[in-house]
Amino acid sequence: MNLTGTYEHTIDAKNRLAIPSDIRSQWSETECGRVWVALPWPTGGIRLYTEREFNTRADQYRNSLTPSPDQAELQVRLFSMARRLEMDAAGRVRLPEEHLRLTALPREVVLLGAGEWLEVRARDAWRASVDDVFKSLPDLMARAEGAPPPPPALHLRPRQSS
Hints:
Elements: E1 6-10, E2 16-18, H1 21-24, H2 29-32, E3 36-41, E4 45-50, H3 51-59, H4 69-81, E5 83-85, E6 92-94, H5 97-103, E7 108-113, E8 117-122, H6 123-135, H7 137-144
């Protein structure tokens, strides 16, 4: 399931966050699993993976009984912070208090589709950055794909009449 879109939501007093109805309508237990898996991210957000997507990614780290020290520490850090979140009858998940503390997320948030996950971020910070995010998209795409950045746009001045 490709998770797309931008949704403004509020985390309620019980730390519940509604999963958007158009995402819930695409939910298939066969394709997605039964739960969401939440992982706080150092950039100040919380990533929500479908159970199936999280397990697929987790399997990449289960290659060895003797991982390197860095691999072992990464596994401990990631898996110890990951939490399984069940949706209630209203389509809400309860975000872990520790995740909210670590990320310092306010109650007013935005859910951002990131293809393979949803990302919960601070609404005001997202709104303030969305124009710059859009403008920097070509450079980010080039870096992510390992290509040189595109040349800067030419800004031609209109010819002045004499």
